[in-house]
Design a protein that fits this description.
The chain is α+β, with helices and mostly antiparallel strands. Helix content is about 35%, strand content about 25%. Strands 1, 2, 3, 4, 6, 8, 9, 10 and 11 form a 9-stranded mixed β-sheet that branches. Strands 22, 24, 25, 27, 32, 33, 34 and 38 form an 8-stranded antiparallel β-sheet that branches. A 7-stranded antiparallel β-sheet has the order 23-26-35-28-29-30-31, with no helix packed on it.
Amino acid sequence: MKLKLFFLLFILSLIVPESKGNEFAENTFLIARLSPSEYRSNRVWNFMNANNWTGIELDLSTDSATRTIFLKNSNIPFEEVLIKVSAQLKNNESKITPLFINYSGNVNLLDSIINSSDLKNQIFYLPQGERWPSVEYLVQANRRAIFFIEGKLQDESRILHHTNNYALEISASQITPNSVILNIESNINKELFNIRNFDRLPTGVSTRQLNSNLVPEYINFLLESWTKYGKKPNFLFVGRNIYNFGFIIEHLNSFVAVKGQVRTAGKNLERVYWKNAETLLTGGKFSFPIRGGEEMILTPFVPGFSLTPSQLIITAEMVMPENYSIMAHPLNLSQGLMASFDFENNLADRVNSERSFTGNGYSFSQDIDRGTVLRLPENANVNLGDPALYKLPNSSFTVSCFVKFTDILEYGDNAILGNDERGYRRGLHLVLRSGHPYFGLWANDYMSEELLESNLWYHLTWRYILETGQQAIFVNGQYVGGSDGHPPYSGTNDIHIGKALSGGASLRGYIDNLYIWNRPLGNEEINRLALDEEIVYSSDEQSTGFLESKNIVLILGLIALFFLILIFILLRIVHVRKQSVLVSKPEMPTKNQIQLFGEFKAINSKNEDISELFTPKVRELFIYTLIQNVKSSAGAPVADVDKTLWHGIEAKKVANNRAVTLNKLRKLLAQFDEIEIISNNGFLQLQTTGNFFCDYVEAFKLCNIPEGMTRGQLQLFFHLVKKGRLLKRANWPWLDEIRGFTGNQVIDNLLKLAIIYKKENKLKELEKVAQRIIDYDDLNEEAIYLQIWALQKANNPHLARFNFDSFCAKYEKSMGEAYSMDFKAFTHYFSDQL
């Protein structure tokens, strides 16, 4: 493992660009609103003099008669504000001051005033699209005044940055839910991150009463926002309360960040999706905070690309590079293609030539623009069969085609692809609704504002991304709208071209080049399809070449087989010698295993992740059976299975449901080696051998060692459970008792390991173990103390105090009363106990 880690770091050292110093975009500034009264009292100026990472926001208005600009609602000339800013920069040669101006009018007048001030030679302006420089550069070049502007402006400025062009912006007073992230998609790749109304964060306490007990709420909001958008917050707008927020910068800077880029062809990608629950979408450049002791697993994905490496695992013991570089490689359009219809006088699917299709009322027609196309008048359709053939249910997918409507219904649907199934998530309807492209999964829909016309060819694309729940619609290769947070399609009825569920909707037009993928296509891929790019398949010549070389392949295969047999014999000898040794959990998921700690994960014998193939009921049956088999060698009583999984359903239906679900489960388990479920005398028994691995099973064995675990076994136990709580997202009622019992075992054993690490003064290891205990029980006093002790030993008192304050805030919220000890009493008490 150490060799692999060394090799990974060596490769990263070659591909990560050289450090460019402390970038401007990696810093956080408090921005105070400069009112006329604050300006006159000098209080804000004194605070800014004493605190380097500060800036101001001001509202300006123009006297059109005198062509003078004033601080709004006052007679204070803007020139006087600039004089004070200039004096600050002269007094502190390392200070950088951002100024945010709200102004409407002739920008040339504003420019002329700034360019006539003492700040003229200290202004830094970054052309749009370029990267922000390092702080060192700004200081050494003496370009330390940075102007941003918002408002209705006349003409263009060469010294003022339009905020919207440079920064993603959210409001703390209206915490942005994930469901609106697509509304800010155009700004997600901006390098800077503004948080407006930070002083209005809904904590329930006035900022005038702000004290250390409220620190966690503000810091946690910043950490959540940082994680959510993959950007460190740069500008915190705190109104007139800047004096109460002096603690923020130091606390925020105590967190280490994982930084990097997702790149292709020498440039960062514009947007990157993440399989991490806390993050949906970022720009190509990313930054995420690491909380003390956490193991961070980052899994990016970009529609239309494969990524190398596909996953980053960051642990406390790693020496992280300054920047990770993830390379994106374009996929072939044929990858993930489930169906391809060109309608050249037939209904052939070029991907699956053995399939045949039926329909009624359809015909083929010669179009002056597109050649031979499929004609589907009213009530005509083609049956494409079971949606599972195209891997549409519970999966990402993309459907695209060219279509021309002869009659667009003003009140009704023109159906492109759909089924006749009713029920939430079960009805598929990719249609025009009153002329608007529509993406429907029955009460789980999105409609574009785009309005199409009859007798024109359009290229339409519907894309669904499972990880984010995004439904998106593209017209002629351009994104015309979408929304996220939609559960996946789960229907089973046959799908049809030219037919959908709503009142017998039909196409009423022509269709050409219909494609179905079981992956989300990238925006660039969709644009290429709209330009009628041909999808390249494997050629006959390639197949012929393969057949001609079969003799060589056969010889090589025989040689390989000989060595495989030899290796197999040697491995069997080793296996026999080690049968009594507990299998150790590998660092990365490997083949033939199922993980229950953290997210459910199933890796088959071919090293393929097939977790999503376990539908909810199949997954529940497998896990219930596995846990009951771990508890008792007799297995899971069928009567208990029926009562638990199908409670309240009549016996006849229960038997049928169990039989169907069990059959599906057995087919999935056939993809694994040496595991099967058999029925025996009214019990379901799970039979496995040493080649099948399950983290829960191995952890259970460790917990049942009569004499207790040794130090090495405790380390192995931690390795098994550190991915997170048992079945993190499952919410079956029967699981609560098992999860509670398992959680107690995890906490008890990890406390033993943590105390060992404390005696050995292994701070990073101790912090990781303590954090995992807190994930199970966020009010565990022993774990909080151990984490604080490790942070204090590591000379990080601010983060130590932050963790204690967070604990106190959670305690009061959960228990309805304040925690009984202050920081000093807490650390003194538990230093004697542990």
